[in-house]
Amino acid sequence: MSKRASLLIVSFLCLSSMASAGTITYVVTVNTSSIAGTAGSLDFNFNPGPLVTQAASLQILGFSSDGTLAGGATLTGDVGGALPGTLTSDNGTAFNDYFEGFTYGTSLVFDVSLYGPALSSPDGTSTSGSTFAFSMFSDPAGTIPVLTSDTINGFAFTVDVNLDGTTTVTNSSSETTISPASTVPEPNDFLLLGTALAWWGALRFRQQRRRRATIS
After folding, report:
1. Do 2 and 83 share a domain, yes or no?
2. How many whole angstroms separate alpha carbon 207 and alpha carbon 50?
3. Quick one: which H or E segment has residue 192?
4. Which residues contact 47 (CB under 8 A, 6 or more apart)?
């Protein structure tokens, strides 16, 4: 295969990878055994910064726990859904919050998935990012933060969406583990990869035919 063809295929694969970028997911695991049996509450909020903020969205997925949700959650701003199902939120209003009573078990697990223009195509003109924050409280009213060293805000952890489309995690809870989820190619990625490989195979076949014709 010619160097030019190889470079074209590499470029094609790079472009297909770039086209599917933009969703960042974290797996969150919290050891709540030290407060098991406590009737408290959970809070999830995703808010824009104080200046010009580019659009971004968030989902809370796969919530699982041996604790018990109280039901009757309070939703504020651009938030939808209900635990243990999928929660959705965007940064379209100043305060976007999901708050629900919760009796703690020994652990809880959920995924945080961030996506939208602020992550996939930063505009370079916005002057504020957005922040997701998760908090746990040891009272149903949500006034006593627990399992956190953040004495100012009471957040267990935050995820900032930066102006360049990257994210920054700040973990203030020694009982909380936050790990990037494994990246699984989207269906379009497989289609593009298959097209590139088919192209490569066609070029190889044509070159082999030419060699055989020359030898003959």
Report:
1. no
2. 60
3. helix 187-215
4. 91, 94, 95, 96, 130, 131, 133
> Is the same domain home to 145 and 200?
no
Based on its alpha-carbon atoms, the radius of gyration of the chain, rounded to whole angstroms, reads: 23
216/170 same-domain check: no
Residue keyed to tokens 């708050």:
99
Cβ-contact 22, 119 below 8 angstroms: yes
Of 31-35, 101-105, 142-146, 212-216, the least confident: 212-216
Q: How far is CA 111 from CA 26, 154, 176, in A?
A: 6, 20, 13
Q: Does the pLDDT value for residue 50 go beyond 80? A: yes
Tokens encoding 198: 């088919």
Cα–Cα distance for residue pair 24/38, rounded to 1 Å: 32
5, 84: one domain: no
Query: What's the whole-model pTM score?
Result: 0.77
Question: Tokens representing 123?
Answer: 């505009």
Residues of the domain holding 147: 23-184
CB 173 within 8 A of CB 147: yes
The H-assigned helical ranges of 52-186 are: 117-120
149 or 187: which leads in pLDDT: 149
